[in-house]
Amino acid sequence: MKKMMFALCLILFSGTFFTFGSMDAKAAEGPRVTLGSPANSVQVGDTFKVPVSGENFNDLFGVEVSLTYDSQALRVLDVKGGEGYDTFGAYEDDANKGKLYIPVLRKQLQGSPQASVRLAEITFKALQEKQAAVEIRHVKAVNSERFVNEQGYKDLKVLTSDVGEAITFKISKQDDRIPSPGQGSGSGSGSTSGQTGTNASPGSSKEPVLNMDAILKEKDPVRAAEMLQALLNGLKSEPAAADKEVVKKAALSILEKLSSVPVNKEVADTYVIAPEDVSKRKTLLAGLKASLAQWKMNTAEINKIELNAVMEYTLGGRDANKLGVYRYNADTAAWEYVREAVHQVQAGKFMLVVKQAGTYRVMEYAKSYEDISGIYAEARYAIEVLTAKHIVKGTSETIFSPGKPVTRAEFSSMIVRALSLGPLVTDPKGETVYSDVRKGDWYYEDVKTLQQLQMIKGFDDGTFRPNDPVTREQMVVMMMNALQALGQVPTGNMQASGEPFADQQAISSWAKSSVNKAKEMKIISGTGQNMFMPKQSSNRADTAVLVWKMLQHSK
C-alpha cells in the first residue's frame, strides 16, 4: 500500500522533475533543503550519518533531492527516512559517478506540518584519507495541496526551495585519533569503525565493551543491529568470557527491539506491514544469530527471537471471542485467517509472528447455523466461537449437525488447530507410524503432528483407527497430553477435588490421571448425575464445549 502511494506521488510529481538548479545558498530565510555535517571526526573505515533536513517550510509533503558525493572517498550504505517521512527504499545510488537520488514522502497526509523537519539520513562509509564533499545539486518540494494541471491531471503544488551549502570534511587515517569512552570508533550518531575488534587480543575486554555503549545508545533498532553486526564481523579472535557476557546481554536487548516490526495502522482496524521492514529485519536477525553462534554467544533466549508485530484494536461492540486476524491475499482477492495470532483480550491487541508483509485486519467472524438454536446455550456459544476461530466448521454452509459423533481423526484436527501445534513440529518431512494413516488422507498432517509431539500413542496393533468415534476418556487424554506438552498442566499427580465421578471405576487406568487433572482444572464436569461416561462417544456439540473450555484455560 505504501508502494502504491509512493508510485502515485511520483506520477503527481511528473512533468516538473528537478526544475531548480543549485540556488543561492545564502538565502537562509526562505525554505531550503540542507545537509548536516558528521557529528564527529571521520577515519578511514568509519560509517557515519549525514542528515538531510527541510527548513522554513509550510506543509512540506514530498521532496526529491539529487546529491553528488566523492565516490573515491565515500560509499553509500543506506538511506532512511527521518521521523515522519519515508523513502520507501526507493533511493537510487550511482556509485561510479557519485550521484544519489532520494525521494522522500511524508507518512501522513493529515496532522500539523512542521517548519523544520528531518527528511532523511544517509549512511556513508569512509574509504580513503582525503578531504571529501557532499553537495545537493537539485531539489523539488511539494505540499499536500492538490489541483488539476494544464494537462488535465491531478498534481501537487510545487514549493519554492533553495539548497544549503555543500558540506566538506576530512577523512583521516585509522588510529589518528583516540576514541573516548562510550564514543565507539566512528563519527556521528551510531557510528562504528571498520577496525572494530580487529586488534583485539584474546582476553582483551576494552574494544567490545567500549563499542557496546555506543550501540546501545542508538535509538533506531535497525541501525543498532547493523552496528552490532559490524562489531561481530570485525572480531578476529574469540572474546574473553567477561566480554561475551556484555555482548550477549546487549545483543538480547537489541534483537528484542529489532524483532518488533513496525505496523502502520489505517482505518477500520486495518494494518500494513511494509515488505522492506520485514526483509531488512529478517536478514539482520538471521545474520546476527549466525555471528553470535560463531563466537559461542548465542543463548536460548536469543535463538527463540522471531519477528513479531502488535495489532491493537477497538472492540466497538463486537464479541472479543469472535475476533481474529486476517491477511489479505491479493492473488485470491480474499482475507485469510492467521491462526498463529495470539489474542490478548484484556489488553485489546493481537500478537503475531510475522512471516510475510502485507495488509492485515482484525475482524469479527459471526456465523450461526440453522440447526443449533435448540441446543443448550453453552454448546451454541462454543460452536459460534470455534467457528469464528476456524477450528470447526459446519457439515454444510448452513448445517452444523450438533448431534453427530466425532471421530478420532476429527478430534485430532480440532486439537491441532485450536492450540496451533503445527509450527512445533521439528521434522515436517517425517511420517506417521500408524498403518492406517496414509499420505493423502485429509487428517494425515494433524495425526502426524500429534504423534511426533508425543501427544498420542495409538493402539497396540500399530493402528490409530482414525474413523472410529472418539470416546470421552480418549478425548481427555489427548487434550491433557497437549496441554501438558505446552506447560499448561501442573506437574505431579492430581486428585480431583470434591466427590469422585460415580463411574470412576469404569475409567481406564491409562486415562484416570488425565481425567482427574481435567476435573481439578474444571475443564470437565461430567454428563449429569455425577457420571463421566468414559467409554461413551462424544457428539459435535459436547466436543465444542470441551475444546472451548480447553482454550480458555490455555490462554
UniProtKB/TrEMBL annotation:
Q: Which UniProt keywords apply?
A: Signal
Single GO MF annotation: carbohydrate binding
Domain SLH span(s) in chain numbering: 366-429, 430-493, 498-555
Q: Where is the signal peptide?
A: 1-27
Protein's UniProt keywords contain Iron: no
Per the UniProt entry, what are the Gene Ontology biological process annotations, in alphabetical order? polysaccharide catabolic process
Query: Which residue ranges does the record annotate as region Disordered?
Result: 171-208
Q: Which PANTHER family does the annotation name?
A: OUTER MEMBRANE PROTEIN ALPHA-RELATED, S-LAYER PROTEIN _ PEPTIDOGLYCAN ENDO-BETA-N-ACETYLGLUCOSAMINIDASE
Q: What is this protein called?
A: SLH domain-containing protein
Organism the protein comes from: Paenibacillus azoreducens
